[in-house]
């Protein structure tokens, strides 16, 4: 726990659905020797100043992310959306529910994501026969209310949806931190909410240079940062279009040290 009673955020992964380096790719970023260019699939872990351990998304890299960051427990999970690079490591939560003590981990998401998780992982959420052998993770889905203060383990959140591809991603506001990942655009009412909050830290989607049909480009992410005016901003979910050094220089030229690309295993206090 931070001695100044701050929350600790760990960037478990900062890359796209393919991860970086990408299989079969020999581009400069995928071939880079800079450890900051080695990006697992995007996820974060928060240890609150009250001691609650919060996992955001269960990527296919979850096991490696927990081992590399020496994380041994989770109090609850938030799932932003149902895309495979954000949920397909969910079974790796299994040993954390076996104990001691044996426990059930709550999983929070929006309504549509919950329905898809129940279908895709029916063996976890709607089992039709008892588990034999290794068992299944003990998880329970909880649908959140959007744009209303929600209390989870005495932590206060405001959850909100925004467009991403054919569906929507769920972001959230937690104290003076906001998380906006896998984002096509941010609705004006959400921009207003985040601006009025006077954020200490914004974590925002920043896929590539130029345009993209389902994610924020560097240019669009920078424009939202200028509107929201957080004290600090961490850029996340970068593709191999951007090396850490390149994006760091672009952000520095525009904002100084207040905006920066995240890298895997980075810790931030807020």
Distance between the termini: 12 Å
Residue stretches low in confidence (pLDDT < 50, at least 5 long) are none
For the secondary structure, the number of strands is 14
Strand order of the largest sheet: 6-5-4-3-2-1-14
Q: Which fold does the CATH topology refer to?
A: Metallo-beta-lactamase, Chain A
Cα radius of gyration in angstroms: 18 Å
Would you kindly provide a written description of the structure presented here, covering whatever features stand out?
Strand 10 (177-180), helix 6 and strand 11 form a beta-alpha-beta unit. The chain has one domain (8-269): 4-Layer Sandwich (Metallo-beta-lactamase, Chain A), CATH 3.60.15. The protein is α/β, with parallel strands linked by helices and 270 residues long. It is globular, with a radius of gyration of 18 Å. The strands form two sheets. It has a seven-stranded mixed beta sheet. It has a seven-stranded mixed beta sheet with strand order 7-8-9-10-11-12-13. The protein is 23% helix and 26% strand. The longest helix is centred in the last third of the chain and has 12 residues, at 244-255.
Give the gist of this structure:
The chain has 270 residues and is α/β, with parallel strands linked by helices.
């Amino acid at each position: 726990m931070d001695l100044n009673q701050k929350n600790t955020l760990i960037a478990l992964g900062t890359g796209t659905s393919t991860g970086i380096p990408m299989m079969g790719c020999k581009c400069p970023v995928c071939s880079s020797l800079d450890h900051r260019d080695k990006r697992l699939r995007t996820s974060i872990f928060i240890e609150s100043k009250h001691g609650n351990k919060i996992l955001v998304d269960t990527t296919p890299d979850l096991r490696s992310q927990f081992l590399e960051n020496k994380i041994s427990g989770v109090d609850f999970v938030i799932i932003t959306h149902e895309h495979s690079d954000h949920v397909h490591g969910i079974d790796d939560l299994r040993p954390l529910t076996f104990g001691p003590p044996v426990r059930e981990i709550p999983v929070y998401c929006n309504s549509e994501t919950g329905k898809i998780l129940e279908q895709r992982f029916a063996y976890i959420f709607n089992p039709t026969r008892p588990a034999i052998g290794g068992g299944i993770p003990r998880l329970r889905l909880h649908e959140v209310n959007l744009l209303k203060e929600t209390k989870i383990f005495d932590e206060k959140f405001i959850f909100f949806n925004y467009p991403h591809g054919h569906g929507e991603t769920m972001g959230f506001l937690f104290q003076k931190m906001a998380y906006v990942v896998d984002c096509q655009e941010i609705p004006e009412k959400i921009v207003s909410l985040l601006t009025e909050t006077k954020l200490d830290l914004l974590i925002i989607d920043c896929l590539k240079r130029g345009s993209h049909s389902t994610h924020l480009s560097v240019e669009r992410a920078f424009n939202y940062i200028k509107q929201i005016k957080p004290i600090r901003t961490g850029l996340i979910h970068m593709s191999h279009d951007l090396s850490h050094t390149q994006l760091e220089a672009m952000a520095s030229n525009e904002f100084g040290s207040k905006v920066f690309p995240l890298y895997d295993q980075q810790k931030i206090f807020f």
